[in-house]
Amino acid sequence: MDIYKAVVSHFLFTLVKTEPEWVHKQTIGSLNWLVKSSYYPSTNWLNNLLQQYLCLNDPRLEQVILGLKFPNPLGLAAGFDKDGIAASIWHNFGFGFAELGTVTYHPQPGNPPPRLFRLPLDQAALNRMGFNNSGAIAMAAKLTDGKKHLTNPLPIPIGINLGKSKITPLELAAQDYLESFRLLKDLGNYFVVNVSSPNTPGLRSLQDAAMLSQILAGLQQENTAQKPIFVKIAPDLEWEAISDIIAIAQTYQIAGLIATNTTISREGLQTQIIEQTGKSPQEEAGGISGKPVRDRSTEVIRFIYQQTQGQMPIIGVGGIFTADDAWEKITAGACLIQTYTGWIYEGPLMVRRILSGLLTKLEENGLTSINQAIGIGNR
Fold first, then answer.
1. Is there a contact between 316 and 330 (Cβ–Cβ < 8 Å)?
2. How far does Cα 110 stand from its chain's mean position?
């Protein structure tokens, strides 16, 4: 029996209705303790136990993409580990990769609370965090210190998601992203340009062709090690705007796209009132993640795959709770997928369940490797 789903989530989300950001802070604190315990063999038994119960290793799930080896296609999306606290132990939870951030050049507190809300009826979350993080200098120090304690390289790729500092004017955004990249470029396996969060004023305007070109040109000039750089896009863009971003990505030899960020749409939500505020989701600012964005993000993945003839790597994110959800995104064209909200609702065993389900899907379709499934829904 899955204790988390049967007891823990029901207790946290329904009975006591704990404040979501408080729970997140406690979780990050626990992860920090786990990281420190992993430095000493005598206290690392818990990390070994996590690996035993939460990980599923199978060569059919492995891929090499952009020169990086992914033990499986399911990663942790940005937003959970904003400061890179648990970078060295995310593999113990079964993830095939993990994305840190969003990190900004300047440390910032984010938007005033309350700013994170669960919508259990919709299996969704509404957040307006506003890139709260300790800044790129602090993340660089954290990751550098963590490397000193590693006897072996991490078994999974680590991505770093870069955002614009709120205090930086839009016309100076390119320099802001560049300063963060300079500090972190040796510490991540891939990087993400986040121009699609709805929670920093004006940020989504950076998806405009001219602004995005300026950001990507600066990063690629600095990117002498040729680290893969992705652009994360919003689900609310028109097809023409997505086509423009694809063209820019190709011009600047960007590695790929992440589809998608949270949505500002409130269409189809069952939640009428958010208890913490007494207001409807329509009255509350912020982006919606989870089930409500699932179908739209898959549509965007399919569009990008078709527009690029499958030649541009796509990381699919939005509403992944089950193996069916994961399979749908992979067969639409995503070579990798990410989860965050689904993991919160479903619990730590979700990763293993999804990976096991993907192996079943491969067998049912007569396939021997997950990369054979990428985009087959378009053929």
1. yes
2. 18
Sequence letter at residue 260: T
Q: How far apart, in whole angstroms, are the C-alpha atoms of residue 227 and residue 38?
A: 28
Question: From CA 103, how far away is CA 131, in angstroms rounded?
Answer: 7
Burial zone of 6 (CB within 10 Å; 0-12 exposed, 13-18 middle, 19+ buried): exposed
* pLDDT tens profile 125-148: 999 999 999 999 999 999 999 999
pTM, 2 dp: 0.96
Structure tokens at 304: 């990008």
Distance from C-alpha of 37 to C-alpha of 53, rounded to nearest angstrom = 18
Q: Alpha-carbon distance 157 to 150, whole Å?
A: 15
| Rounded CA separation 315/334 (Å) | 5
- What's the average model confidence in pLDDT over 200-227? 96
- Where b means 16+ CB within 10 Å and e means fewer, 348-368 reads bbbbbbbbebbbebbeeeeee
Give the containing element (helix H, strand E) for 314.
strand 314-317
Range list of β-strands (E), 114-238:
116-119, 124-127, 158-162, 190-194, 229-233
197 is catalytic: yes
Task: State the Cα–Cα distance between residues 101 and 188, nearest whole angstrom.
Answer: 11
DSSP letter at 318 equals S
Let me know if 49 is exposed, middle or buried by CB neighbors in 10 A (0-12, 13-18, 19+): exposed
Exposed (0-12), middle (13-18) or buried (19+): which is 63, by Cβ within 10 Å?
Answer: middle
Annotated catalytic residue within 197, 205, 265, 297: 197
